[in-house]
């Protein structure tokens, strides 16, 4: 589809519209060449940013040639023929837009587009019917744009600082290329989000805001009341979960009720910015169950909810838990484009648009790129995890998927100083879940610092270099418990697994799933892993050994806390052991131990620990443990 720019001049300023070329009346088409969308949008932006003096002249009928020449020069630099500007008067412009808005009214397009951000090609695919006209979907979407119900931009737009992908926000990932679709020699395209369908300069990107809450009166409608949490799930909440869940429910209900009660929707960009809160839960606290309470509240008020997680494997498990939590209700699961999802991307892409989504959507953060102001509640779990952490693309996607007046919940066991500071600044409350679900304290890592560890690190697959205390510690565990050994890199993990003669697992491992299944089924195995298993995995009765824990680039405080958090998660064996082994004692190691101790102190002070429980490190020391106990004096806080 090609476009034209209509421009009218009034003393009040420029009025412009980008419309499909075919929608122009024949007399306006004469002498005008249709443009690819990105060029039309550039012309529109140039006209709208013109200085007041020039606008005045244009309104009086002067300077049109000069302005046209300037636009033609710009288009020439893009390798395009002039010109896409149709000069007309204001009444004519309004008439063209009105005629366009009245055409092709199609509820099918509205249904698919509401709450979404979709390329023209995705829209066509979603609405394709046998024998149907492929252009019908596009012109129906254009009608929604003309009517002001939807927005349309070029998927990649050009401005003074270059080109920018409007879907993923990428600039560095955009490069010009000869294009078979629009004929331009320099059509800009984005490589970063290309796996979701290529964003090009000549491809329209449609977006349509969804409602904050389903239309209706104050009371929840029939479909909303179906979303009730299973009573056995509510009954199984621990005291810590219960308290956090109630606090979170209150926050969400108060916010959404306030938005609904106001009558007039709050205009975008006003108010105090997006509202939300942070849930800071220790590893093994069961924060997902805490979030389900808030989900129930939002769904009960007729809202849509997105539960987003960075990784695919966790998304699938979360969707299943959500389905069970809500008594078998249908939950839409969208996956793809995680770091570990090569197989799933294609499947997720094609299956998405055939059926109406459930009001509860569970998705990887990449999938949020296809939503637009759709969700009254967005719950983002593990927000400090790869690949979400540090990705401006995914941050943009998740924020854009939330309705501007919706509520956001971000959850982690290790939120980090920066996130907490920005939450405080925005006035977001922080809700703590300081105790594990089973009410036992977190295992506090023991620390063993030995120079010999450096020698091993230099040649990890040499069995001669394995420090004796490591062998002794492992041998003491093995008769009765599984051990997960963490290494900072794939090379170290491979080497350590060889020198110890045990299994290994990392993201590039060909038999990853099989290895994990074998480990899960065993009682006495040792598995060496990279940070791949740092979170989102639970094995009952597990001890944790972190090797080369002073590795500066990979093992930061959050990662160390997460790895330690794999131990002692089951109620049957809540007292797992954790050992950090390193050649030097790093700041991150010290801070991780302190953070875990602080959480245990908080849980004890708030009366959330089970009576009679003690921190494992304050219990009688293992007679078979060679680990020094110099630090135990500091740990008897419980
Ligand atoms: Zn992009
Ligand atoms: Zn193109």
Task: Report what the structure shows.
With 638 residues, the protein is α/β, with parallel strands linked by helices. Helices cover 36% and strands 18% of the residues. It contains 22 helices and 23 strands. The strands form six sheets. The chain has a seven-stranded parallel sheet. A six-stranded parallel sheet has the order 18-23-22-19-21-20, sandwiched between helices. A three-stranded mixed sheet has the order 2-1-3, sandwiched between helices. α5 crosses α8, α11 runs parallel beside α12 (287-300) and α21 (557-564) crosses α22 (587-605). The longest helix has 23 residues, at 239-261. The radius of gyration is 29 Å and the shape is elongated. It starts with a strand and ends in a 33-residue tail after the last helix. One zinc ion binds at residues 165, 167-168, 170, 173, 190, 192-193, 199. Pfam families: DEAD, Helicase_C. GO terms for molecular function: helicase activity. This is DEAD/DEAH box helicase. Residues 606-638 are annotated as: Disordered. Residues 469-616 form the Helicase C-terminal domain.
């Amino acid at each position: 589809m090609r476009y034209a720019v209509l421009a009218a001049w009034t003393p009040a300023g420029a009025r412009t519209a980008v419309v499909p070329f075919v929608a122009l009346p024949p007399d306006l088409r004469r002498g005008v060449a249709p443009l690819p969308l990105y060029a039309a949008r550039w012309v529109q932006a140039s006209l709208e940013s013109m200085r007041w003096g020039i606008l005045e002249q244009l309104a009086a009928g002067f300077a049109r040639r000069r302005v046209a020449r300037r636009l033609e020069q710009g288009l020439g630099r893009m390798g395009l023929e002039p010109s896409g500007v149709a000069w007309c008067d204001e009444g004519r412009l309004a008439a063209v837009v009105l005629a366009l808005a009245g055409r092709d009214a199609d509820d099918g397009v509205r249904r698919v587009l509401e709450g979404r951000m979709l390329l023209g090609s995705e829209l066509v695919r979603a609405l394709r019917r046998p024998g149907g006209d492929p252009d019908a979907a596009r012109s129906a979407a254009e009608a929604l744009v003309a009517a002001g119900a939807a927005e349309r931009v070029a998927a990649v737009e050009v401005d003074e600082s270059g080109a920018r992908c409007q879907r993923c926000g990428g600039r560095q990932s955009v490069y010009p290329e000869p294009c078979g679709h629009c004929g331009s020699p320099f059509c800009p395209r984005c490589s970063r989000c290309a796996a979701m369908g290529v964003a090009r300069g000549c491809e329209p990107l449609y977006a349509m805001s969804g409602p904050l809450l389903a239309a209706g009166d104050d009371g929840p409608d029939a479909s909303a009341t179906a979303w009730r949490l299973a009573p056995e799930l509510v009954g199984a909440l621990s005291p810590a979960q219960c308290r956090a869940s109630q606090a979170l429910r209150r926050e969400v209900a108060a916010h959404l009720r306030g938005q609904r009660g106001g009558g007039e929707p709050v205009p975008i960009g006003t108010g105090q910015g997006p509202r939300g809160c942070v849930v800071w839960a220790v590893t093994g606290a069961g924060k997902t169950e805490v979030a389900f309470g808030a989900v129930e509240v939002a769904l009960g008020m007729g809202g849509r909810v997105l539960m987003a997680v960075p990784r695919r494997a966790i998304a699938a498990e979360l969707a299943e838990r959500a389905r069970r939590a809500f008594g078998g209700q249908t939950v839409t699961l969208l996956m793809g484009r995680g770091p570990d999802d090569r197989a799933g991307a294609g499947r997720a892409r094609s299956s998405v648009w055939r059926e109406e989504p459930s009001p509860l959507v569970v998705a990887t953060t990449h999938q949020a790129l296809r939503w637009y102001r759709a969700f009254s509640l967005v719950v983002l779990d593990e927000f400090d995890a790869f690949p979400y952490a540090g990705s401006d693309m995914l941050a943009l996607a998740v924020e854009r998927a939330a309705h501007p007046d919706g509520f956001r919940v971000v959850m982690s066991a290790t939120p980090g100083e920066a996130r907490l500071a920005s939450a405080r600044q925005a006035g977001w409350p922080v809700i703590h879940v300081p105790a594990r679900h089973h009410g036992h304290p977190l295992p506090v890592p023991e620390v063993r610092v030995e120079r010999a560890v450096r020698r091993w690190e230099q040649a990890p697959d040499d069995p001669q270099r394995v420090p004796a205390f490591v062998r002794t510690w492992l041998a003491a565990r093995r008769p009765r418990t599984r051990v997960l050994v963490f290494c900072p890199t794939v090379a170290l993990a491979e080497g350590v697994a060889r020198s110890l003669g045990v299994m290994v697992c990392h993201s590039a491992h060909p038999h990853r799933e099989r290895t994990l299944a074998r480990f899960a089924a065993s009682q006495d195995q040792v598995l060496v892993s990279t940070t791949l298993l740092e979170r989102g995995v639970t094995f009952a009765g597990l001890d944790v050994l972190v090797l080369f824990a002073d590795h500066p680039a990979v093992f930061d405080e959050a990662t160390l806390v997460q790895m330690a958090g794999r131990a002692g998660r089951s109620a049957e064996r809540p007292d797992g052991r954790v050992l950090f082994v390193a050649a030097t004692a790093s700041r991150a190691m010290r801070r991780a131990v302190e953070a875990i101790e602080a959480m245990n102190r908080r849980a004890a002070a708030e009366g959330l620990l089970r009576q009679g429980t003690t921190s494992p490190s304050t219990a009688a020391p293992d007679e078979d443990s060679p680990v020094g106990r110099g630090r135990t004096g500091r740990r008897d806080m419980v």
